[in-house]
Amino acid sequence: MSIAHEDGKWLADFPVDADIVMFGIWRVLDRVEKEGKDPRNPSRSVTYVTHKLMLEPKFRHQLICARA
Questions:
Q1: Which residues, including other chains, have CB under 8 Å from residue 27's CB and lie 6 or more apart?
Q2: How many domains does the chain have?
Q3: For the chain, how big is the Rg over CA atoms in Å?
Q4: How many Å apart are CA 11 and CA 14, to the nearest integer?
Q5: Which of 7, 9, 26, 48 counts the highest number of beta carbons within 10 A?
Q6: Phi, psi angles (nearest 5°) of residue 13
Q7: Alpha carbons 21 and 51: distance in angstroms, whole number
Q8: How far is CA 64 from CA 10, 23, 53, in A?
Q9: H helices of the chain, where?
Q10: What's the confidence (pLDDT) of residue 68?
């Protein structure tokens, strides 16, 4: 997941490991599929799908720091 805003300093002020609440319209940038063994049943395989998402808020109040 990525967040972009014209004020990069404001985004950098969010503490590492903070819980962030975000409101907005997400854009899907890419989708990556990987296949691996099912950890519960090694004779089966599982497909993992990762979606790369981007949020570009127009207003700062679309993001809040819920817990640092």
A1: 53, 54, 55, 56
A2: 1
A3: 17
A4: 6
A5: 26
A6: -75, -15
A7: 19
A8: 12, 9, 18
A9: 8-12
A10: 56
DSSP at 13: T
User: Can you read off the two tokens belonging to residue 34?
Assistant: 């990987």
27-36 pLDDT tens trace: 888 888 999 9
Q: Using alpha carbons, list the distances in angstroms from residue 48 to 21, 30, 37, 51, 68.
A: 25, 14, 10, 10, 30
The residue to which tokens 């590492």 are assigned: 16
Amino acid of residue 46 = V
Contacts by residues 11-16 (CB-CB < 8 Å, ≥ 24 positions apart) = 14/63, 14/65, 15/65, 15/68
- What the block records as the tokens of 14 is 């969010």
Distance CA 46, CA 64 (A): 35
State which residues of the chain have pLDDT below 70.
Answer: 1, 68
